[in-house]
Amino acid sequence: MDVFSCSTRVETSDTSNLEELMPSDYYVTFFMQGQEKPTFFYRNDAVDGMRQSVSCQSKKRKRFDNRVILLKDTQNAVVFYEQNYRKRGCTIEGWQKRGGQWELSREIQEHV
Question: Is the terminal CB of the chain with fewer CB neighbours within 10 Å at N or C?
Answer without folding.
Answer: C
